[in-house]
Amino acid sequence: MKLPIRAAIYARISKDISGQALGVERQLIDARKYAADNGWIVAEEYVDNDASAYRGKKRPEYRRMLEDISAGQRDAVIVYKLDRLTRQPRELEEFADVMAQAKVKDFGVVSGEVRLASSEGIAMARLLGTFAALESDIKSDRLKRKAQEIAEAGRPNGGNLRPFGYEKNQLTMVESEAVAIRELASRYLAGESLGSLTAWLQDNGISSVAGLPWRTTALRQTLTNPRIAGLRAHNGVIVATAVWPAIITPAQHKQLVAAFARKAQSNRRAPRRYLLSGMLRCSKCGNKLYSSARRDTRRYVCMSGPDHGGGCGRLTIVAAPVEEWIAEAVLMRLDSPEIADALAGRAAVDERHSVLVEELQADQAQKLELSGMWARKEISSADWKEARDILDAKLYTIERQLSQITGTNTLDGIAGHGGELRTSWDSLNLTRQAAIVAAVLDFATISPGTGGGRREVDPNRIVPSWRL
Predict the structure, then answer these.
(1) Is the CB of residue 317 less than 8 Å from the CB of residue 446?
(2) Which residue ranges does the record assign to the Recombinase domain (predicted)?
């Protein structure tokens, strides 16, 4: 008695826009009919949905089918079209080898038959595979050109998830989310950390567009996305003004990109526990005071040794009282005439900041272009290294200059309102408090103590040097 032929059906669709796998289901229906017409039994159906056979995406079901054929569990294979099986000539050769080694001669193509068991069939399959690969190349180039045209026209691209701040049509602003973005941008530029901003979103019940809690990585992507500034980017380069309304200004976008670049370079990750870290100096040696806890008491200490700048190691002050005194001094100074006079000259600082940001972005783009020239072998490794070193030196200088310019957004809406801020000071998180203090105070020199408890501090020990 002749055993029935056990057929494997393979179906694949490279882009399932609807998410309903309708293209795969149509392939399966026609393949099942093909099996029935030939008297074959469908032993198993292998389906890779939304997986490309041209770009090398992993196709687990395809690999599993090859394993079953090699194990002698399948006597035939059915596909709707040859390009559903593969679009890569080398992968077709692998498939033909697996079929030959397993002595599987029956290979059904619903839209036309190719017999891999014969030399003519292999040649025809190779020819069809070459044309399928060429078709994919042409289609890919056409889609790239279309995407470029859409971007240069300032129009949005597709996507199932809407961008935060905009409706699903990617054009209409969601005002409540736009308000949140503006506050997030302002607070980050004022010195608040991504972690505390993410916590703020969580505390206020503001979810991502996927309905999930925010992560710092997602928040960083949102705040640095040119889209929220009404700019259209393509392949990481801004190519046009967008047709949708901007939530923040292009200048704010540049400031955000520069701020994130500086934070990445400084690589500061530890959460802040001390308000005045880096802002206190020892009157004896001029060295910075370092935060240090002893038992349950937070302190600022002048530390000796090469790892701490060679301090004298002979000065200590309890943290809480000095933090309270300086915070109160800063709040009082926010309402002083000195602050008003200092802020009157901020326009020049703002202009210098914008110029530096533009220089930074231009040099970063040039460095990226330089890497591309080396990859395309247009310049030698020696030329690439020489030019790269020059650009790295320029980038380092610009970063240092930017780091010396106080964020101009820090005191927006605060200067002249120290009394009001005092009532809400304790509700601000530590990074926001530190940013406000650092915008006003350059540093404070601490003198040796003459006694007193942990809960009080002698004001005569503190000599502030004001930035504003």
Answers:
(1) yes
(2) 163-266
Q: Is the distance from CB of 338 to CB of 467 less than 8 angstroms?
A: no
Res 140: pLDDT: 65
> CATH code for 175-266?
3.90.1750.20
Instruction: Provide the 10 A C-beta neighbour count for residue 274.
Output: 20
Higher pLDDT, 55 or 186: 186
Nearest to 454 by CA among 324, 310, 290: 324
Return the domain boundaries, the chain.
6-139, 175-266, 280-466
Number of H helices, E strands in the chain: 15, 12
> With the CA atoms of 427, 428, 430 and 436 taken in that order, what torsion angle do they form, in degrees rounded to the nearest 10?
-140
160 half-sphere exposure, CB direction, 13 A CA radius: 6
pLDDT at 385: 86
CATH for the 6-139 domain, from 3.30.450.20, 3.40.50.1390, 3.40.1180.10, 3.40.50.2300: 3.40.50.1390
Enter the pTM of the model: 0.49
* Number of residues assigned to the chain: 468
- Residue 376 CA to residue 302 CA, distance in Å, equals 54
**CB of 442 closer than 8 Å to CB of 467:** yes
Report CA-CA distances (Å) from 379 to 330, 365, 366, 376, 387.
Answer: 55, 17, 14, 8, 10
What's the CA gap between 352 and 346, in Å, rounded?
10
CA angle 421, 423, 425 (to 5 degrees): 60
Dihedral angle over CA of 435, 437, 439, 443, nearest 10: -120
> Which of 162-166, 271-275, 425-429 is predicted least confidently?
271-275
Considering the chain, what is the average pLDDT of its residues?
A: 81
| 6-139 and 175-266 agree in CATH topology | no
> Does 18 have pLDDT greater than 50?
no
Lowest mean pLDDT among 20-24, 192-196, 229-233: 20-24
Per-residue buried b or exposed e for 85-98, using 16+ beta carbons within 10 Å of the residue's own CB: bbbbbebbeebbeb
